[in-house]
């Protein structure tokens, strides 16, 4: 059975800050393989928990794989049945493949201070 994951993307790498990501690359995970499906635009949805969660649900995404993310956003995503894996970095295709192969372990990395101007 396949599932869809989304990764916040800046070019070809994981965007380190989930809430500021302009787009999310969607992959379909089948067995131990990841297949790139789509790029979802988050323009106008930055730091909007409900809007982002709805976008993911409407596109069949089940898991968000990201670097840094705030606790409020995690709660918002979990509330609509989405799972969150944190601590990812690097090339989005490599990260998706690592997830598919079970090699990506969530670090539990949560942004404690929610300052829109901070850097990770």
From TrEMBL:
<feature type="domain" description="Dinitrogenase iron-molybdenum cofactor biosynthesis">
    <location>
        <begin position="11"/>
        <end position="100"/>
    </location>
</feature>
<dbReference type="InterPro" id="IPR003731">
    <property type="entry name" value="Di-Nase_FeMo-co_biosynth"/>
</dbReference>
<dbReference type="InterPro" id="IPR036105">
    <property type="entry name" value="DiNase_FeMo-co_biosyn_sf"/>
</dbReference>
<dbReference type="Pfam" id="PF02579">
    <property type="entry name" value="Nitro_FeMo-Co"/>
</dbReference>
<protein>
    <submittedName>
        <fullName>Dinitrogenase iron-molybdenum cofactor family protein</fullName>
    </submittedName>
</protein>
């Amino acid at each position: 059975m396949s599932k869809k994951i989304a990764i916040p993307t800046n070019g070809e790498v994981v965007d380190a800050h989930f809430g500021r990501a302009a787009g999310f690359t969607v992959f379909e995970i089948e067995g131990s393989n990841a297949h790139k499906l789509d790029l979802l635009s988050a323009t106008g949805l930055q730091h909007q928990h409900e809007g982002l969660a709805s976008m993911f649900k409407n596109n069949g995404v089940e898991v968000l794989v990201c670097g840094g993310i705030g606790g409020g956003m995690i709660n918002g995503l979990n509330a609509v049945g989405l799972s969150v894996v944190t601590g990812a970095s690097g090339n989005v295709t490599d990260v998706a493949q690592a997830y598919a192969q079970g090699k990506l372990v969530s670090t539990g990395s949560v942004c404690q201070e929610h300052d829109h101007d901070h850097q990770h």
